[in-house]
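A.,

Following up on our hallway conversation. Structure tokens first:
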């Protein structure tokens, strides 16, 4: 390849700019500074392009930009010796350069940053109020359904129980089993150092029954069922089916939200119990393989040293987790505006907020049970 070159000479007839070589994009870095350094006088400028061997859009832009700077400086441009294809390309690029290229935005100031923080805080406050209003509306409809059970759409409830509960059983059971295996293996590794392997039973039972079983089940349900709720109701919002529902005199909260929330309220404790049992099974199996703790000894120590309250503490949290996941996912769906992109954004926000709130509620319950001595 022939490297591009540029030179400028000034005489009584004006400025003569001679460009040669291959003005291809991959070679332009060697002449960009030379092009930028040319400052012709405001008179006649002649571009001699007869020695250009090859030219692409990048090279044409350099020539057109130099011509634009000369013109804005008051000079008149004359192109000589250019091949027809090169002249046409330069002309096309010249006409594509905007008259007003605009200017870079000024660096953001501290005032702009404070304004952004204020807008975000106000937006978060509005969303919180809107979500609390939706929660109150949902609780009102749940209470009305309890008083007037014939208003409940039983077919929808059964369908959502199957989707959120029955079809989630395999993944929840597998998750619980693996958690039990990991706890037993890690606990045994640490307890062996102190000769206290037998206490691995208490470690597994308390960890799984009290915290991990129901917490990880709620996280799985938030990612699996919560996202499905937001996507399905959000798609109905985009297609204006919810507006049509209101026109027909149907309450979207009663028709769409209550069956889903009720399904979660019924199925999440069951899923949590399945995760607990699978976790104990995985822990017992790993204890038998790694520590030689027989299943009979495991069950004996489990009955002697694990209070039923350990199981109850975990399951008590399940309805609260279910209500939070159901309300957040349905509220996010109702905030969908106009497009499939909005559905995707709200679905992501639904999962993130649900998992965050589940962890917050779990922390609050831990403090509460600790204070009351359970």
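Then the amino acids I'd put at each of the 374 positions:
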């Amino acid at each position: 390849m022939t490297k591009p070159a540029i030179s400028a000479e000034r005489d009584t007839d004006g400025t003569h700019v001679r460009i040669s070589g291959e003005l291809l994009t991959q070679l332009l870095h060697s002449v960009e500074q030379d092009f930028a350094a040319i400052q012709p006088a405001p008179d006649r400028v002649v571009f001699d392009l007869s020695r250009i061997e090859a030219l692409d859009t990048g090279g044409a832009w350099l020539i057109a930009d130099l011509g634009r700077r000369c013109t804005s400086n008051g000079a008149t441009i004359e192109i000589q010796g250019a091949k027809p294809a090169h002249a046409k390309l330069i002309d096309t690029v010249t006409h594509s350069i905007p008259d007003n290229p605009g200017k870079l935005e000024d660096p953001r100031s501290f005032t702009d940053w404070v304004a952004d923080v204020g807008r975000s805080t106000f937006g978060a406050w509005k969303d919180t109020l809107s979500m609390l209003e939706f929660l109150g509306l949902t609780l009102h409809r749940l209470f009305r359904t309890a008083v007037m059970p014939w208003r409940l759409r039983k077919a929808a409830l059964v369908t959502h129980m199957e989707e959120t509960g029955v079809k989630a059983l395999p993944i929840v059971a597998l998750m619980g089993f693996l958690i039990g295996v990991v706890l037993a293996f890690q606990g045994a590794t640490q307890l062996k150092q102190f000769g206290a392997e037998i206490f691995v039973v208490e470690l597994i039972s308390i960890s799984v029954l009290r915290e991990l079983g129901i917490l990880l089940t709620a996280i799985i349900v938030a990612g699996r069922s919560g996202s499905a709720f937001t996507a399905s109701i959000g798609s109905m919002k985009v297609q204006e089916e919810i507006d049509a529902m209101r026109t027909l005199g149907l309450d979207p909260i009663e028709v769409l939200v209550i069956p889903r929330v009720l399904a979660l309220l019924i199925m999440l404790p069951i899923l949590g119990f399945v995760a607990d049992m699978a976790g104990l099974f995985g822990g017992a199996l790993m204890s038998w393989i790694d520590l030689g703790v027989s299943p009979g000894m495991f069950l004996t120590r489990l009955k002697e040293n694990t209070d039923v309250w350990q199981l109850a503490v975990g399951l008590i949290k399940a309805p609260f987790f279910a209500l939070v996941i159901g309300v957040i996912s349905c509220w996010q769906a109702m905030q969908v505006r106009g497009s499939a992109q909005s559905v995707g954004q709200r679905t992501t926000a639904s999962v993130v907020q649900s998992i965050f709130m589940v962890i917050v509620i779990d922390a609050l319950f831990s403090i509460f049970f600790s204070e009351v001595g359970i």
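The beta strands are 5-11, 14-23, 44-55, 76-80. Curious whether your intuition agrees with the design.

B.
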